[in-house]
Amino acid sequence: MNYEMLILEKKDRMAILKLNRPNALNALNSQILLELDKAIDNIKEDDSVDVLIVTGEGKAFVAGADISQMKDLNAEEGRKFGILGQRVFRKIETLEKPSIAAINGFALGGGCELAMSCDLRIASERAKFGQPEVGLGITPGFSGTQRLPRLVGVAKAKELIFTGKIIKAEEAQSIGLVNKVVDKESLLDEAISMAQSIIKNGQLAVRYSKMAIDRGMQGDIDTGIEVEANLFGLCFATKDQKEGMTAFVEKREANFETK
Ligand code: CAA
Questions:
Q1: Complete edge-to-edge strand list for the sheet that includes strand 180-182
Q2: Active site residue 76
Q3: Is Translocase included in the keywords of this UniProt record (predicted)?
Q4: Is the ipTM of this complex over 0.95?
């Protein structure tokens, strides 16, 4: 598949998806969003991929939704553009396979929202985060009002969204927005190493765990507990569970079927 604004590379059971519109700091216009949509479908269907890594080309991860494209939209067009971004990011969030955002630079507005739709976030020490939309006279529009409070708490999310202030990677880590901050040079290696630590495990168990966590955190705890019980039970019908536990008893490395 050919992409104009993305680079999709697959190796060692990972897909590395790079936003590649560096002259506009990878700003999200409709085209790049539609390309992202197609790329996620492709990754979803590809059995050779267990983990997705999302990163950006140049000095930005993503500097937001494309302001030039949004400038003259009317209310209905604005709503539709928002729904497009929301839909694509929800597709990333609900991908069965775990995703890691490797945040190489600015992650502002839609860029912070893209990072938040991934399961894990590793940031370069140079990365900067923020939801500066109110400074443009709009709200966050690709689900930032929903994911930021879930990640950092309501009070911190309101502070960031109401003031539009930009924070550095260390602060983003201290409030729980990113998992880890690393040197600019080692960012991709760190993301790959985290992906490898996931890939060595039973992939069905990883995917079921993701599903149980998300169902619980995005719904009520009783539903989450029930989902966990069902998925925990399902694990015992898999070869991975037999192999994982037999390997433990036999004091050897597990060789999982889904690898
Ligand atoms: N949309 C469109 N173009 C953008 C852009 C954006 N979000 N961000 C940067 N660009 C473009 C600039 O216009 C510039 O293009 P030209 O070279 O053609 O002039 C190019 O990218 C380089 O940007 P700068 O010259 O501004 O780079 P800088 O290093 O001086 O500043 C920056 C970097 C602080 C990130 C600055 O570009 C900036 O403030 N960008 C906008 C950030 C922003 O407000 N993001 C939120 C967008 S709204 C949104 O995302 C809504 C939503 O929730 C869905």
A1: 6-11, 14-19, 51-56, 99-103, 120-124, 180-182
A2: no
A3: no
A4: yes
